[in-house]
């Protein structure tokens, strides 16, 4: 009887434990749907805040001609390239859903 228990433990129990922890390891490294939704919400919030900053800077620049914004500007290609890449990646992700 002891031999049956040992053989069952080796051929059933051991692979089950190994596959169980492999599955846990793989799912722990992925982004969940909640994480993706939060990232999308934060991205949209950042875009809205950027538009608001543009408006404030235009108002200040209209009052003070010497005003030079020291942040990333929406109308320069060097500043827009990372944003375009992010928009492209989000668009591709939306197409896959």
How would you explain this protein's 3D organization?
With 97 residues, the chain is mainly α. The protein has two domains: 30 residues; 66 residues. The chain is 80% helix and 0% strand. It is built from three helices and no strands. The longest helix has 31 residues. The chain is rod-shaped. The two termini are 53 Å apart.
Mean pLDDT: 83
Tell me, what's the shape? rod-shaped
The residue fraction in helices comes out at: over 70%
Instruction: Quickly count the domains.
Output: 2
Strand content: under 5%
Q: How would you characterize the largest beta sheet? A: none
Discrete helix count: 3
Using only C-alpha atoms, the radius of gyration works out to 27 Å
List low-pLDDT spans.
Answer: none
Run of helices and strands: HHH
* Overall strand count: 0
Terminal CA distance: 53 Å
Instruction: Output the structural class.
Output: mainly alpha
Key descriptive features of the protein:
97 residues, mainly alpha
Task: Give the structure's gist in a few sentences.
The chain is mainly α and 97 residues long. Helices cover 80% and strands 0% of the residues. The longest helix is centred in the middle third of the chain and has 31 residues.
């Amino acid at each position: 009887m002891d031999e049956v228990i040992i053989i069952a433990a080796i051929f059933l129990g051991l692979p089950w434990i190994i596959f169980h922890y492999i599955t846990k390891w793989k799912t722990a490294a992925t982004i969940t749907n909640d994480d993706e939704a939060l990232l999308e919400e934060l991205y949209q919030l950042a875009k809205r805040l950027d538009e608001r900053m543009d408006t404030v800077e235009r108002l200040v620049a209209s009052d003070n001609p010497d005003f030079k914004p020291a942040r990333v500007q929406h109308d320069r290609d060097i500043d827009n390239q990372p944003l375009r890449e992010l928009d492209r990646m989000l668009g591709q992700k939306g197409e896959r859903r």
